[in-house]
Amino acid sequence: MRIRTRLLRTGLAALLAAGGLVTSQSLTAHAAENPYERGPAPTQSSIEASRGSYVVSQTSVSALSVSGFGGGTIYYPSSTADGTFGAVAVSPGYTAYQSSIAWLGPRLASQGFVVFTIDTNTTLDQPDSRGRQLLAALDYLTQRSSVRSRIDTSRLGVMGHSMGGGGTLEAAKSRPSLQAAIPLTGWNLDKTWPEIKTPTLVVGADGDTIAPVATHSEPFYGSLPSSLDKAYLELRGATHFTPNSSNTTIAKYSISWLKRFIDNDTRYEQFLCPLPSASLTIAEYRGNCPHTP
């Protein structure tokens, strides 16, 4: 009886060991499939939270120490335990300063990104200039900044509000290697963007009278290539200036978009596909699903 019990125990131990090996191999294989995943598995509440899982540090960059843009503030995960992170540069709009989009810095950085909210050379700079400045900011961030060693230079994106949103489209057009672009209530005299190869989330507002969706965000979205990973989010009960203050809807879909395309993190696909339905905060959502693997 003792021999039989010992054999059973030995067999069970072998099975458990084999199971552990399979589990370990599965986890290793999953990690190998996407080495860019950062942070815990997302939930609806985690992408809507005011802060993610990372503690955030920040550093100011003087306009006097850079060229091609007006300086800004870098927000980044304090810990280096998870390796490098993707990075995003964010531009304010016409007549505005980085303070108008500052809320996005810690909000996005705490989810696992290095975020650079910038000032432009002058507050009157037009979209094409803002696009060049976003790229100059990314170049500074990855080549000269004090946090450059924390950044994966192959995983970069751009965002911007109003003319900064128009500049976001300009930057994506100029640099197709960018992994994500998010214009927020964007403004640009150029309405067609068939050249863009960067996955783009266009965010408009149903009450925008400065950059009405019918003449800005909707034609921007409609002109993007049909083969491109793209989406159009129209905020309900919102204005041109809604992106200037903390907004859960903007944050949750921006986080999901940046994670999905800068980090190639398919754990966030669930928040983008199937397409979100109209709601109290969403007037309309368009896009193509599923997204490119």
Question: What are the defining features of this structure?
Answer:
about 290 residues; Rossmann fold; 9-stranded mixed β-sheet; 9 strands
How would you portray this structure in words?
This protein has a single domain, classed as Rossmann fold (3-Layer(aba) Sandwich). It has 7 helices and 9 strands, in the order H-H-E-E-E-H-E-H-E-H-E-E-H-E-H-E. It has helices at about 1-35, 45-50, 105-110, 125-145, 165-175, 215-225, 250-260, and strands at about 55-60, 70-75, 85-90, 115-120, 150-160, 180-185, 200-205, 230-235, 280-285. Helix 6 (about 215-225) links the parallel strand 7 and strand 8 (about 230-235).
List the SSEs and their pairings.
Layout: H1 2-33, H2 44-48, E1 56-61, E2 72-77, E3 85-91, H3 104-109, E4 113-118, H4 127-143, E5 151-161, H5 163-174, E6 180-184, E7 200-205, H6 217-223, E8 230-235, H7 248-261, E9 282-287
Parallel strand pairs: 3-4, 3-5, 5-6, 6-7, 7-8
Antiparallel strand pairs: 1-2, 2-4, 8-9
DSSP helix fraction: 25-40%
Placed side by side, the strands forming the largest sheet appear as 1-2-4-3-5-6-7-8-9
- How many E-type strands? 9
> What structural category arises from helix and sheet content?
alpha/beta
**Name of the CATH superfamily:** Alpha/Beta hydrolase fold, catalytic domain
Q: CATH class, anyone?
A: Alpha Beta
Tell me the strand percentage band. Answer: 15-25%
Model regions low in confidence, pLDDT < 50 over at least 5 residues: 1-32
Number of domains: 1
Strand count, sense and closure of the main sheet? Answer: 9 strands, mixed
Q: What sequence of helices (H) and strands (E) makes up the elements? A: HHEEEHEHEHEEHEHE
Enumerate how many helices there are, as a single number.
7
CATH-derived architecture: 3-Layer(aba) Sandwich
- Any idea what the radius of gyration is? 22 Å
CATH topology: Rossmann fold
Q: Judging from the principal axes of the Cα atoms, what is the shape? A: globular
Q: Overall mean pLDDT score? A: 91
Alpha carbon gap, first and last residue: 55 Å
